[in-house]
Amino acid sequence: EVQQRLFPQKLPPIDGLEYQGRCRPALGVGGDYFDFLALPGGRLGIAVADVSGKGIGAALLMASLQASLRGQTLRATGSLAELMSTVNRLVYAASPENRYATFFYGEYDPVTREMTYVNAGHWHPMILRRDRHGGLEVIRLRAGGTVVGLFEKTAYTEAKIALCPGDLVVAYSDGLSEALNTAEEEWGEQNVIDLAAACD
Question: What is the pTM of this model?
Answer without folding.
Answer: 0.89
